[in-house]
Design brief:
There is one protein chain. It contains 13 helices and 17 strands. By secondary structure, it is α+β, with helices and mostly antiparallel strands. It folds into two domains: 180 residues, Aminohydrolase, N-terminal nucleophile (Ntn) domain (Glutamine Phosphoribosylpyrophosphate, subunit 1, domain 1), CATH 3.60.20.10; 222 residues, Rossmann fold (3-Layer(aba) Sandwich), CATH 3.40.50. The strands form three sheets. Strands 2-3-1-9-8-10 form a six-stranded antiparallel sheet, with no helix packed on it. A hairpin with a 3-residue loop joins strand 4 and strand 5. The radius of gyration is 21 Å and the shape is globular.
Length: 435
């Protein structure tokens, strides 16, 4: 919902697309550009960076359960109060484990910057000798693009740009040329286990993630089980939303499920121009696509045109509840949750939504649901068995999605290969370096 750019030397703001409001300045010898999309904190009177007693706080993301920690009006009010004390105080340690949401945070004081992200990397941070940023582009001056594809690796495609690993804490001391990772200082956020009723957890998560004080609410709807569950809870709670879907071979099923649940559905086609595709590659900053990149780009583009600044998706259910075909052959949950989500899906969703200044929220990725799923036996969740059983009385959960085929004419050149990625980014780097 925002963008952080902290650099040692003043640089252009290359992440303005991440917000509607922009702030820049200099604190403790660090130059900052901050782009804000105040979906939850609009009209609270707070702007970023948040000024603390002897420090400044940059926050990109949302903590949905901030009211659990006191009578705060927004997550920004909560964080400003929490961070007034030393970052790793007992109060911080106790509460961090209970956060429900996603975040990237930079804490700047006279000694340097401490920065970290949520444990599944929904909001990313990258760093090198230039500084720290929500995206890679501001950091690739004089960089080289790696010549070998690094599929599903933990780092980036650029030789001197590093990613802050999800859930890990880093410190950039003023006297150092590069950040270093801190020893583990906070108890594990994920894996503590959670008992309770799954339906109630999902209902709570959808309601928390439907609150918006800026723009209208949207839903990306495919007709599959995951987005249908989110739609069910929106309708059940009388929450106003606009549902968008894209034309493919599942269109008929999507219409049928939408009618069962009781909401209207708008379809868009899947056509994209070559110029748009080149722009998409530069925003994506990654070279891996399993087929979701263009459809999601078009859906978020349409959402922005309709004023839907907050959009819910069904992402996370396949990983948590073993919905992929590979999970039928063995339990792939650990890989799906801790590799597939943070190092593929979350990068794509963040870039494609934020390039249109739209925030994507994923109700299945609440801390309660994550911990519930991680302690659920494989036999009870494989093929999303428990989800299908819970929701079969509300809509038809028996239909399993087919391999998608879109109706638009696909240009053979519109495929994200290593070659196309390298070509577009080498052109961009050469332009940045004045070549």
């Amino acid at each position: 919902m925002c963008g952080i750019q902290l650099t040692k030397k003043q640089t252009p703001n290359l992440i303005k697309h991440r917000g509607d409001f922009h702030f820049d300045g200099k604190e403790f010898d660090w130059f900052y550009n901050f782009s804000s999309l105040p979906i939850s904190s609009n009209d609270t009177g707070l702007t970023q960076p948040l000024e603390l007693d002897n420090a400044f706080l940059f926050f990109n993301g949302e903590i949905f359960n901030y009211k659990d920690f006191g009578g705060y009006r927004s997550d920004l009010h909560y964080l400003k109060d929490l961070f007034k004390k030393e970052l790793f105080s007992n109060k911080f340690r106790q509460q961090y484990k209970k956060w429900d949401g996603f975040w990237s945070i930079c804490y700047l004081n006279k000694d340097g910057v401490i920065f970290f992200t949520d444990p599944l990397g929904k909001k990313q941070l990258y760093y090198n000798h230039i500084g720290i940023c929500s995206e890679i582009k501001p950091l690739i001056n004089n960089s080289l693009l790696m010549s070998i594809a690094r599929y599903n690796t933990l780092n980036t495609n650029f030789n001197n740009v590093n990613r802050a690993m999800p859930g890990m804490f880093y410190r950039y001391d003023n006297g150092n040329s590069l950040a270093h990772r801190l020893p583990k200082t906070v108890s594990d956020y994920i894996g503590n286990g959670n008992d309770g009723d799954l339906y109630t957890m999902i209902d709570k998560s959808v309601k928390l993630r439907s609150v918006t004080n800026y723009g209208k609410l949207g839903l990306l709807f495919s007709g599959g089980l995951d987005s249908s569950i989110v739609a069910h809870h929106l309708v059940k709670n009388n929450i106003e939303f606009k549902a968008l879907s894209i034309e493919n071979n599942e269109t008929g099923n999507a219409k049928r499920i939408a009618k069962q649940i009781g909401f209207d559905l708008e379809f868009i086609d899947d056509k994209i121009s070559k110029s748009e595709y080149k722009k998409l590659i530069l925003h994506y900053e990654y070279n891996l696509d399993y087929g979701s990149l263009i459809p999601q780009y078009l859906l978020f583009k349409k959402a922005k045109e309709l004023g839907l600044y907050t959009v819910l998706t069904g992402d996370g259910a396949d990983e948590l509840f073993s919905g992929y075909t590979r999970a039928l052959e063995g339990d792939t949950q650990e890989y799906d949750v801790f590799s597939e989500l943070p190092y593929y899906h979350h990068i794509r969703i963040d870039r494609v939504s934020m390039m249109h200044t739209v925030e994507a929220r994923n109700p299945f990725l609440s801390s309660d649901i994550i911990n519930y799923a991680l302690k659920t036996k494989y036999a009870d969740r494989v093929g999303k068995k428990n989800l299908r059983e819970i929701y079969k009385k509300h809509f038809d959960t028996s239909v399993k999605k087919k391999p998608l085929r879109y109706k638009g004419d696909k240009d053979k050149n519109l495929n994200l290969t290593q070659e196309t990625f390298m070509t577009e980014f080498n052109n961009y780097i050469n332009t940045q370096n004045g070549k």
